[in-house]
Design goal:
By secondary structure, this protein is of the alpha+beta class. 31% of the residues lie in helices and 27% in strands. It has a single domain, classed as Pnp Oxidase, Chain A. The longest helix has 16 residues.
């Protein structure tokens, strides 16, 4: 969708300590502020790939926002079109429909209100960004609407 992309690769701590810890808690059914484990089929390997994500519920819809930009999970979800969100033993299949840039503003605002404490640094915005400032970076952060299939 977006011509310009960005990708902020996870650092060693995130990759080797934080994500595994969040994943382990999720397997036990413990969510940190609403996180889920996303599983998507790898676009090259075909193997399941997992990562923690922060779903956002807004106006009765669920969204997955990519704070780090065009990540591997984004590329895989674009290719597969569907995945699963899991917490504990409960796993739900979903279809992911990418949101066009011109519809992202209210979603990004709500996402930053909820999750800036954890992922705000990846957006490279001031503490209380204006709509214009958010609008300038929206093309760099893919968003998918989650439609559960079960």
């Amino acid at each position: 969708m977006a011509a310009e992309t960005k990708y902020i690769e996870p650092d060693w701590f995130t990759r080797n300590v934080f994500n595994p810890a969040v994943h382990a808690l999720g397997r036990l059914g413990i969510s940190i502020a609403g996180h889920r484990t996303l599983t998507v089929r790898g676009r090259k390997s075909g193997e399941p790939r997992t990562t923690p994500v922060n779903p956002l519920e807004l106006d009765g819809e669920i969204y997955l926002v990519a704070p780090r930009g065009t990540t591997q999970w984004v590329r895989n979800l674009r290719a597969a079109g569907e995945g699963t969100l899991k917490l504990g033993r409960r796993s739900r299949r979903f279809r992911g429909d990418e949101i066009p840039d011109d519809a992202k503003l209210p979603i990004l605002k709500a996402y930053l209100d909820k999750w800036a404490w954890e992922v705000g640094r990846f957006f490279e915005l001031p503490k209380d960004p204006s709509d214009e400032q958010i609008g300038e970076i929206r093309r760099l952060h893919p968003i998918f609407r989650v439609t559960y299939l079960d």
